[in-house]
Design goal:
Blueprint: E1 7-12, H1 15-25, E2 29-37, E3 40-46, E4 53-58, H2 59-65, E5 76-79, H3 82-91, E6 100-102, E7 105-111, E8 117-122
Parallel strand pairs: 1-4, 5-8
Antiparallel strand pairs: 2-3, 3-4, 6-7, 7-8
């Protein structure tokens, strides 16, 4: 059966900008990169200690292939130190919303270079 999340595709306006955002501002590592044509690459990034990757795929290329699949992904990231992650993102110029402390856990929403939002929650 399914044992883990392997890859999550994010459809981005500019692959270089997206790659820079995830590597430089969030500290992810480049896991794989391969050209797919003159102006298109397959780019995978992810946290250093995780095998799950984000595929940064060209939104315009996918819209030409199959416009129906270019929907915003729902991605929830996890951390064991939410406060430190929040402060680091703010220091790196990442747009973040206020921290939410709920009975079931703490979390906050952050935005990438294209305005897509993601949730970061704290794992116990």
């Amino acid at each position: 059966m399914i044992e883990k999340i392997g890859k999550i595709t994010l459809y981005v306006k500019d692959q270089k900008e997206a790659k820079d955002f995830w590597l430089d501002k969030l500290g992810f590592e480049l896991k794989f990169e391969q050209p797919m044509g003159p102006n298109l690459s397959w780019i995978e990034v992810g946290p250093s200690d995780d095998n799950t990757t984000l595929v940064l795929y060209s939104k315009s290329a996918m819209e030409q292939q199959d416009p129906s699949v270019v929907a915003h992904p729902s991605v929830i990231f996890s951390t064991t130190d939410l406060e430190a992650a929040y402060e680091k993102m703010k220091a790196n110029g990442v747009k973040v919303e206020e921290m939410q402390k709920m009975p079931y856990g703490s979390m906050f929403i952050f935005f990438d270079q294209d305005g897509n939002n993601y949730l970061l929650r704290e794992d116990a």
